[in-house]
Amino acid sequence: MPFLIALVVLVGVLCVLDLLLTLGVIRRLRVHGEMLAARPAAQPEPMLAAGGTARPFSAVTVDGVPLSDTSLADPTLLGVFSTGCPACVERLPLFVERARAFPGGRDHVVAVVVGPEDAAAEDVRELRPVAHVVVEDHGGAVARAFRVTGFPSFALVGGAADGAADGAAKVLASGTLLEDLGDLDAVAARR
Q1: CA 123, 124, 125, 129: dihedral to nearest 10 degrees?
Q2: Can you name the residues that pair with 133 across neighbouring β-strands?
Q3: What are the Cα distances from residue 58, in Å, to 61, 69, 137?
Q4: Are residues 111 and 132 in contact, defined by beta-carbon separation less than 8 angstroms?
Q5: Where are the beta strands (DSSP E) in the chain?
Q6: 141 Cβ contact list (under 8 Å, min separation 6)
Q7: Which of 126, 119, 118, 117 is nearest to 60 (CA)?
Q8: Rounded distance, CA 95 to CA 85, Å?
Q9: Label partner for 4 (CA 20 to 30 A): which of 23, 51, 164, 181?
Q10: What is the CATH number of domain 58-190?
C-alpha cells in the first residue's frame, strides 16, 4: 500500500509540473503573438513600383484599338482588376469615378480585367465609357508588363513621351488604392 500511495503522489506532482509548464508555454506564445502582430508585415509590391519601366507589350482593347507600351498617353491612369476579387468589386466604382474626372478623358485611362471574358462582361460594361479596356487571362501581356502580382492594382504611368528607355512607359506611382497615386490632378497638370 505505501508503494501505491507514493506512486499516486508522484503522478500528482508530475501533473502539477506539466500544468505549470503548459501555462508558461501559453504565456510565452501570447507574448510572441503580440510581438508578431505589432510588427508590420512586409507586403510585396502589387505591381511595378514608381520609377520602374514597363516591359514591352501589345494588346487589343475590347473596342479593337491596338495598345502597347509605346502608345500610352502621357500621363495614363492604369487600373488592373481580376474577376471574382472582392477588393476589385469594392474599388472598381471608385476607379470609374476617378477615371471620369481624369484629365485627358478616356484616351488617358486604361483598365485591364484579368479573367475569362464571360466573367469580365459586367466589369467591361462599367469601365468601357471611361477607359480603354483590355480583357486578358492571368499572366496576360499587360499584367506581365507591369509585373502585377495583386489585385486591384493602380498606377499612374508616363507615356513614351516621358523619356523612358526605348520609349516605353514609366511608372510614376503605383499601389492597391487610388490614394497611393497621390494627387492625380496635380501630376497631370504638371505634364
Answers
A1: 120
A2: 111
A3: 10, 7, 14
A4: yes
A5: 58-60, 66-68, 76-82, 109-114, 132-136, 153-158, 170-175
A6: 57, 58, 59
A7: 117
A8: 15
A9: 23
A10: 3.40.30.10
What is the rounded CA–CA span in Å between residue 74 and residue 112? 18
Give the count of alpha carbons within 13 A of 119, CB side only. Answer: 12
* Amino acid at the residue 139: G
User: Grid coordinates standing for 157?
Assistant: 504611368
Bridge-based pairing state of the strands 170-175 and 109-114:
unpaired
* DSSP state at residue 139: T
The percent of the chain in helix, strand and coil, each rounded to the nearest 5, is: 45, 20, 35
| Element of type H or E holding 173 | strand 170-175
Write the single-letter amino acid at 32. Answer: H
Q: Where are the domains of the chain?
A: 1-42, 58-190
Mean pLDDT across the chain: 87
Q: State the pLDDT at residue 74.
A: 84
- Strands 58-60 and 66-68 come out as antiparallel
Residue range 155-181, pLDDT digits in tens: 999 865 444 445 678 898 898 888 888
Cell numbers that stand for 6 in this block: 507514493
pLDDT tens digits for 120-141?
Answer: 999 999 999 999 999 999 989 9
Residue 151: closest CA among 141, 143, 159 = 143
The residue-averaged pLDDT of 137-159 equals 91
